[in-house]
Design brief:
15-stranded antiparallel beta sheet, 2 helices
């Protein structure tokens, strides 16, 4: 019991110490850290995507992505996971939904944060964890790269990957640019459209190409670790005719945790 109390007090002291360190950074500096997927800090985003206008009955689908990002070896390696929790409508009916976990995506990057261009490269793995009608439920693997530049008030970058199934001929491509312009007091404007392609689909159903804008703020409560909030909307210029959504509402909150706290 005494040992447990000592561990508890030590954890509280560490939290206070690192909160003090984080408080020395401005809101603008913390916002730029939160926007950089290669930053040497643990971040835990909770991103909720609500997709409207799917199928002939204009159904609504919702996905909550839990996306922890964990740097290792002083930031030389970064592990990123995406755990989707999905509410998927039966698009062939006005009623009925499937609920559960989708396929988990796991990425590992070797990073280089020296110079004007920061980059990371490594494998991405699709884990077959999806429930019924919530994913492909197949092992998949492929390459993933990310690049970031930070000129002035901007944080600009792109994430690219392609996953090939190890159990079928399915193949999926992702191209996700992100552009952030930072304003005073931790406010910022952002766009991060996730362009995807299903290479096995016919030409009219292959691509999803959104366009949109988000607004966010880095919040630094006194005595607590900072967090980032963001909300935005995206309209799909191109989408699969039958299964694609007309537009998406995206809301996210990200906790920032100094990795040394662990």
């Amino acid at each position: 019991m005494k040992q447990a109390k000592k561990i508890k007090y030590l954890a509280i002291l560490l939290l206070m110490a690192f909160t003090q360190v984080m408080s020395q950074l401005t809101e603008e500096e913390l916002a730029k850290i939160a926007q950089n997927p290669l930053a040497n800090i643990i971040s835990v985003p909770f991103q909720n995507n609500t997709n409207f206008g799917i199928g002939p009955f204009d159904r609504t689908q919702n996905t909550l992505n839990i996306q922890p990002v964990i740097p290792l070896a002083e930031g030389k390696f970064i592990i990123r996971a995406i755990l989707p929790i999905i509410n998927q409508p039966n698009i062939l009916s006005e009623t009925g939904n499937y609920n559960g976990i989708g396929d988990i995506s796991l990425s590992a990057f070797y990073t280089n944060n020296k110079g004007k261009i920061n980059w990371g490269a490594g494998p991405i793995i699709n884990l077959p964890t999806a429930g019924e009608n919530l994913g492909i439920k197949e092992w998949g693997v492929g390459p993933s790269i990310v690049g970031v530049i930070k000129p002035g008030s901007w944080v600009i970058g792109v994430l690219i990957n392609n996953v090939w199934s190890l159990e079928s001929d399915l193949s999926a491509f992702t191209f996700q640019p992100f552009i952030n312009f930072n304003l005073p007091n931790g406010y910022y404007l952002s766009t991060s459209p996730k362009v995807t392609a299903n290479w096995q689909a016919d030409s009219g159903n292959k691509w999803t190409i959104p366009i949109g804008l988000a607004f966010g703020k880095l919040i630094k409560p006194k005595g607590f670790l900072p967090f980032n909030i963001q909300g935005g909307a995206y309209y799909n210029l191109e989408k699969p005719e039958f299964t694609g959504a007309e537009w998406q509402l995206r809301v996210a909150i990200t906790a920032l945790i100094p990795k040394a706290i662990f």
